[in-house]
Amino acid sequence: MSFIKLGLPKTLVAALAEQQYTTAYPIQTKAIPTILKRKNVLGIAKTGSGKTASFVLPILSMLQGSPTAKSRHPLALVIVPTRELAVQVGDVFKQFSKALLDPITTKVVYGGVSINPQMKAMYGVQVLVATPGRLLDLIDSNAVNLYTVKTLVLDEADKMLNLGFKEEMKRILRLLPRERQNLLFSATLSPDLESLSAIVMKDPVVIKIENEATDISQIHQTSYLVSEEKKGPLLRYLIKTKEITQVLVFTSSGYKADNVADKLRKNGIKAAAIHGKKSQSARNNALNQFKAGNLTVLVATDLLSRGIDINELPYVINYELPRSPKDYVHRIGRTGRADASGIAISFVSPESLHHFKVILKKNKLYVDLIDTAALEME
């Protein structure tokens, strides 16, 4: 469906067209008109399905004409689980706010950096995008007040619950006005999420995009049986022989991510690691360099992958297998997004072969397993 039919202002539709967004995704088609009617929404759709624009565009539309804020009282609050996702969501708000006659002021706050600049930046905020812990720090410092919030968004709500933010969320909810619009977006609908929804929302419109969470049909999957000590040479061999110019590589720990990236750089391949122990500036720089095409390889852990959103990422490689079948689908789903094709490759050691078979069985997948014993990788 065309965005013009969803009730958005012409200026926003024009901005979408300039960015070559002409047709709304299913979650956007259903969510945007509902949010514009100021109804509560519980939206379930996979990461990468267009959920961010589903709430950013109508919020900007509803805030048009709002008086320029001269206080520390946001009108819209978006809570996200990670710093990377906070930056990503904030960028979308800022990108489309420029198209409005009266641009909406968006501030992004997260932990891991000095709080003082964020405290000073709160003056004049209209849309606040925040991680739970840093938001509470700012509230405790009297740097921001939530009593004017008209719209609350919990993005990646399932991840927030999984990461143990339940108590922080309860405290934040107590500080919000009772009369407000509530929007929850998640990749899955778990019992915990349903409980949170019952606490937060009254009579929500439930929008569930069926089968989206496991739709990996356009991703070509393959795997290699390889010993642990041969994974590095195999990675370099594939990058060279397949002429890979952009690949997201997953490891199970920050230590392994650093190790893989270091060895790639020593072999003349532009690479960087991104994980929770890196400084925020280092993480932002690596992600921006990767998105700009200045890095061939970005090595990441599962948690940090939520902020990596590239529509035409050609390759994903599981250097180490994920712990769960769901994480496998989430990882390879970084490629093959927005109706583009993609290639997902998994490195399977003899010790992890049984685990890989369990992952495939749970996801009802068949993936070719290539033995690397005969490959000349040097």
Q: Which helices and strands occur, and which strands form pairs?
A:
Blueprint (H helix, E strand, L loop, with lengths): L9 H9 L7 H11 L4 E4 L6 H13 L12 E4 L3 H15 L8 E4 L5 H7 L5 E4 L1 H9 L10 E5 L1 H6 L3 H9 L6 E6 L4 H10 L4 E4 L10 E7 L5 H11 L5 E4 L3 H13 L4 E4 L5 H12 L5 E4 L14 E4 L6 H8 L9 E7 L4 H10 L5 E4 L7
Parallel strand pairs: 1-6, 1-7, 2-4, 2-5, 3-4, 5-6, 8-13, 8-14, 9-11, 9-12, 10-11, 12-13
Q: How would you sum up this structure, described in words?
A:
This protein has helices at 10-18, 26-36, 51-63, 83-97, 115-121, 132-140, 157-162, 166-174, 191-200, 231-241, 254-266, 280-291, 325-332, 353-362; strands spanning 41-44, 76-79, 106-109, 127-130, 151-155, 181-186, 205-208, 219-225, 247-250, 271-274, 297-300, 315-318, 342-348, 368-371. It is of the alpha/beta class. It has 2 domains: 3-212, 3-Layer(aba) Sandwich (Rossmann fold), CATH 3.40.50; 216-371, 3-Layer(aba) Sandwich (Rossmann fold). The strands form 2 sheets. The chain has a 7-stranded parallel beta sheet. A 7-stranded parallel beta sheet has the order 10-11-9-12-13-8-14. Strand 10 (271-274), helix 12 (280-291) and strand 11 (297-300) form a beta-alpha-beta unit. Helix 3 packs across helix 4 (83-97). The longest helix has 15 residues, at 83-97. The termini are far apart. The mean pLDDT is 87.
